[in-house]
Amino acid sequence: MDRPRAGVTPYLHPMRALETRIPPPIVMVLAGAIGWLASRCLPALSLPLPFNKVLVISLATAGIALNLLPKLAFARVSTTVNPLRPASSTCLVTSGIYRYTRNPMYLGHSVILLAWAVFLHNAAAFSTVPVFMLYISRFQIQPEEKHLAVRFPGAYAAFRQRTPRWL
CA-CA distance, 165 to 107, in Å (whole number)? Predict the structure, then answer.
């Protein structure tokens, strides 16, 4: 078995180098900026949407709630909300909003991006939502799941079986 030698950094696959490195809110803001830029570069993809203001406000409110409610649940049980350090979790939260989704904060980010795309009313801006979800699934959620499966083996396996990753 190969072991890293002292003073030598072992090779890290470039895809693994991104895992849990960029805070998800930063990824959301970058995706939103790309959506804005795309909407400006591709005005022909403009979409007139009925009830635009009501829809934007409703989606943004839902996205913010999906971010705040889990943070309150984490605070109640004194566990970390830091997505960059999933191994430091002290408790598995499975109640409240977590009965419906294992990742309400990331779902909230996606809903906020959707509200932004509606606000921009451009088809290109809408493409950032699934791209964000794919990125977060691969580079944030999957590494978190690995840590939680080790930290809370039986409880996390049961949680995964009864609760979907997104919805």
Answer: 9
Of the two residues 86 and 75, the one the predictor is more confident about is 75
- Give the 3-state secondary structure of residue 25: helix
| Torsion-angle region of 121 (φ positive above 0: left; ψ -120 to 50: alpha; else: beta) | left
- Angle, helices 128-136 vs 104-120, to 10°: value is 160
Please provide the average confidence, as pLDDT, over all residues in the chain. Answer: 90
Q: Do 92 and 156 touch, CB atoms closer than 8 A?
A: yes
SS3 per-residue string spanning 92-160 = CCCCHHHHCCCCHHHHHHHHHHHHHHHHHCEHHHHCHHHHHHHHHHHHHHHHHHHHHHHHCHHHHHHHH
Query: Across residues 130-137, what is the average pLDDT?
Result: 98
Threshold 0.70, pTM exceeds? yes
pLDDT tens-digit series, residues 61-77: 999 999 999 999 999 99
- Give the span between the Cα atoms of 52 and 68, in whole angstroms: 24
